[in-house]
Amino acid sequence: MKFGIFYEHQLPRPWKEGDEQKLFNDALEQVEVADRLGIDYAWEVEHHFLEEYSHSSAPEVFLAACSQRTKNIRLGQGIRQVIPQYNHPARTAEVVATLDLVSNGRLDFGTGESSAELELGGFKIPVAEKRKIYLESLEQVCNMLAMDPYPGYQGQYFDMPCRNVVPKPAQRPHPPLWVACSQRETIRMAARLGIGALTFAFVDPMEAQEWVDEYYGILKSDECIPIGHAVNPNICMVSSFSCHHDREIAIQRGLDGFEFFGFALGSLYAFGEHKPGRTDLWKQFEEVKKARGDLAEMDMTQALAGSRGGIGTPDDLREHLLKFEKCGVDQVTFIQQAGRNQHEHICEALEIFAAEVMPEFKEREAAREQQKLEELAPYIDAALARKKGLQELADEEIPT
Fold first, then answer.
1. Domain of 310?
2. pLDDT tens digit string along 143-153?
3. CATH code at 256?
4. What CA–CA distance (Å, rounded) separates 171 from 168?
5. Which among 400, 382, 398 is positioned nearest to 147, based on CA atoms?
6. Distance from C-alpha of 325 to C-alpha of 78, rounded to nearest angstrom
7. What gap in Å lies between CA 268 and CA 81, rounded to an integer?
8. Tally of structural domains, the chain
9. pTM
10. Does the pLDDT of residue 278 top 80, yes or no?
């Protein structure tokens, strides 16, 4: 099983001069630490206008910086907004290819459409049509990355004349594709499209088993018709993260941040009202926490079975991750930078995890991956054969 770290670049209020600078500097150092320790992925999201919850509005810049400070860790757009009002498809293809080149072929292309009104409304994206716009845009981005020249397209939401979109990525036909999934239907969609499922729903291992079984069942069926020019058969689950030999210290260092992550997510996406530049999510979170009592007093034995299972001792994390491995989850990515979690504590937790938990999973990874790929190979070939995409232009058909 592979492991990753994930960044929203959270920065709770109140803010002071230099806080955002420190936020990014610390994150770059954490990615360097993760690379040195052999952690597989560093993912960064693209969000807009989500104050405190995510200051990650230009992930391509951050990932480019990471690429020059690391050697092995894969760099994931987790995710890139591909709807044209966010990013024109040609610009997305150019950014993806350039990032892949400057990282020497280490990019994973995660995609999404967002569901926050603050973002969708800010870019005047029609909520009822965003899924259709997403699918149309993603397919054309993949064509731009793979085709020479791109023959052009006239669609419902996007059109573009024939152009050769350059540069082309190091990984051909394009980097591995993923989609952000917060609901079960999106998991099904990922399988139907032949792309990786980057799940942002915090589920326990029992539910994860159902998601994995359904994902791979659809991927092996005639329903799978790849949206890209390659299939990426992977499912990734996210988890809380704070590791220390003393469980109470792990809880004190990590639980507040993870709880704030969930609170801010709910407030911005579901139940909250937001006044730009004025709403104080951290203050609201502190008030809620005070009303319900000290979070650290919760029953961690019960919590380890669910979304907070990544917080605890090395043995706690091992037990938590073994359940996901048994389910067939391909990757677990940690929410380690959340709320006011401290940089030094994050780095220390990564060191402990890499030394005492990760090795046994890595011992099994290569054989497990090889077995999976051998089993899936005929299904992937069949899926690609079902794909009917744009036709390459003959020389005489290319317009001047």
1. 2-397
2. 999 999 999 99
3. 3.20.20.30
4. 9
5. 398
6. 22
7. 18
8. 1
9. 0.95
10. yes
